[in-house]
Design brief:
- By secondary structure, the chain is an alpha/beta fold.
- Helices cover 43% and strands 13% of the residues.
- It has 14 helices and 9 strands.
- Helix 12 links the parallel strand 8 and strand 9.
- Helix 2 packs parallel to helix 14, helix 7 (146-165) runs parallel beside helix 9 (197-211) and helix 11 packs parallel to helix 12 (310-329).
- The radius of gyration is 21 Å and the shape is globular.
- The relative contact order is 0.13.
- The model is unreliable at 1-36 (pLDDT under 50).
Length: 393
C-alpha cells in the first residue's frame, strides 16, 4: 500500500473557488438557496438533525472524492458537519497483518475533520462478508483453540482503534452486514465459525462499549426500501438480529440503514414508491419499537434503470429520494444522515453497478462538474419540511 505523508492543505481562493461558487449559486429554484449561507447541513439542523458525507484519503492532486481535492473539500466544508471514511478504517486498510496496524490514511481524515470542526463516524470495526476481509484473514489459522484466538484478535482490534481515537469518534459501525440477505441468518465465515455468530456480535459490541463508552454503537446493514423476495428475507433477518440483541442485553444503540436506494424500474415515481413505503414503514416501526435509534449511514441513489435523458433522470432520482427521506425524517429517532459521497464523478456506483448505456450514475447531490443537481434540492427540501423533534437535538 502506497501511503504518503500528511496531505497538504490546499487554498480555496482564486478561480476554483469562484467557479464553484457560481455553480452553487445556480441552484436557486427551491427552498434550498445554494448561493446563500444555507447548506444541506444548515437545513438539517433546522429540524434538529445533521448532514454529512463519506470521504476518501488521497495524495494531494489526485482526482478523487477526497479532502485533498480542493473542489471536493469546498463542498464538504460547505454542506457537511459529519464525515465518515469510505474505506480507510476497514480491515483491508488498517490491518496489513494479524499483529500490525496502519492508520496513516484514517489519521489524516480525522485530523482534517477536527480542523474543520466536523464530527467523525467510525466505519467499521468489522465488515462481516468474507469477500471484504484482508487476504490474510480469509485463510487465517485460528489454531487448536479457535474461539480464544478469534476473540483475542477481535478484542485487540477494537481496543486499538477505540483507544487511538478516543472521543474524536462519536459513533461506530461496530459490525457491518452480519446478516446474509438470501437467508436472513448470520453470515457463515471463519470468524463466526470460530466463535459462534451471536457470540461474535456480542463480543464486538460489549468490547466497543467498554472501550468507547461515550460513542453511539451502531449495527449497520446494506438496506433500503425496495421490494423483492430477498429484501423481505433480509428485513426479517435484521429484525431477528435486533430482537436478539435486546434479549441478551447487547449494547446496540442504533440501526444503521445504509440507504443505497435503487430505482429498479422505469415509470411514475409515485407508483414505484407506493410498492415500498407501506412494508418499509412497518419495518422501521418495529425497529424503533424495540428502542433503537436510526442512522442513515450511506445514502445515494442507484439510477441504473432510469432514462438516459439527464433532465428526466435527475427529476426521477430527486423525486424518489425526496419520498424516501420524507418517510425516514418522520421518525424522531433519526438524527444523522450521511451521503456516500457528494459528487457523481467519484461515486462507487459507477464501478459497482454500471448503467447499460454507459453513462455516469447521477445518484449524489453534485454532478461530475461539481454542480448541484435536483437531488441536492430534494435533500434540502426534505430537511426543510421535516418535523422538528426535540428528542433528535
Amino acid at each position: 500500500m502506497d501511503i504518503a505523508s500528511k496531505p497538504t492543505q490546499f487554498s480555496r481562493r482564486g478561480a476554483l473557488a469562484a467557479g464553484l461558487s457560481a455553480a452553487l449559486i445556480a441552484s436557486t429554484d427551491s427552498a434550498v438557496a445554494a448561493g446563500s449561507s444555507a447548506s444541506l447541513d444548515a437545513f438539517a439542523k433546522k429540524s434538529g438533525r445533521r448532514f454529512g458525507s463519506a470521504v476518501s484519503w488521497s495524495k494531494p492532486g489526485a482526482d478523487r472524492g477526497s479532502f485533498a481535492n480542493p473542489a471536493y473539500a469546498t463542498i464538504l466544508e460547505r454542506d457537511c458537519s459529519l464525515l465518515v471514511p469510505e474505506n480507510e478504517l476497514k480491515w483491508q486498510w488498517t490491518r496489513p497483518g494479524p499483529t500490525t496496524f496502519d492508520f496513516q490514511q484514517f489519521d489524516a481524515i480525522v485530523e482534517y475533520a477536527t480542523k474543520q470542526g466536523m464530527a467523525v463516524r467510525g466505519h467499521t470495526l468489522f465488515w462481516t462478508p468474507t469477500k471484504w476481509y484482508p487476504k490474510w484473514l480469509e485463510t487465517f489459522d485460528f489454531g487448536p483453540q479457535p474461539k480464544a484466538a478469534a476473540e483475542a484478535l477481535l478484542v485487540s482490534h477494537v481496543r486499538t482503534v477505540c483507544s487511538r481515537y478516543g472521543k474524536r469518534i462519536y459513533s461506530y459501525d461496530v459490525v457491518n452486514e452480519a446478516v446474509e440477505p438470501g437467508t436472513g441468518e448470520i453470515r457463515d465465515t471463519n470468524v463466526t465459525r470460530a466463535i459462534g455468530g451471536e457470540a461474535f456480535l456480542d463480543l464486538m459490541f460489549h468490547t466497543a462499549r467498554a472501550e468507547a463508552p461515550h460513542a453511539q454503537l451502531v449495527y449497520n446493514d446494506y438496506m433500503s426500501w425496495e421490494r423483492n423476495s430477498e429484501d423481505e428475507t433480509h428485513m426479517r433477518g435484521v429484525l431477528k438480529l435486533l430482537e436478539g440483541f435486546r434479549k441478551r442485553g447487547t449494547p446496540v444503540d442504533a440501526l444503521g440503514i445504509q440507504s443505497h436506494i435503487r430505482l429498479l424500474k422505469q415509470g411514475p415515481v409515485a407508483d414505484i414508491v407506493k410498492e415500498s413505503e407501506g412494508p418499509w414503514r412497518r419495518f422501521v416501526d418495529e425497529v424503533v419499537g424495540m428502542g433503537y435509534k436510526l442512522v442513515i449511514t450511506e445514502f445515494d441513489v442507484n439510477d441504473r434503470m432510469a432514462p438516459t435523458d439527464i433532465t428526466q433522470r435527475d427529476r426521477m432520482v430527486a423525486d424518489y429520494a425526496k419520498a424516501y427521506l420524507d418517510l425516514m425524517l418522520s421518525y424522531s429517532q433519526l438524527r444523522d444522515i450521511l451521503a456516500w459521497g457528494m459528487v457523481d464523478r467519484y461515486s462507487w456506483l459507477n464501478g459497482f453497478d454500471p448503467r447499460a448505456d454507459k453513462t455516469m450514475k447521477r445518484g449524489t447531490p453534485y454532478d461530475a462538474n461539481f454542480r448541484p443537481k435536483p437531488l441536492y434540492d430534494a435533500i434540502g427540501n426534505a430537511f426543510a419540511s421535516a418535523p422538528v423533534h426535540a428528542s433528535a437535538v
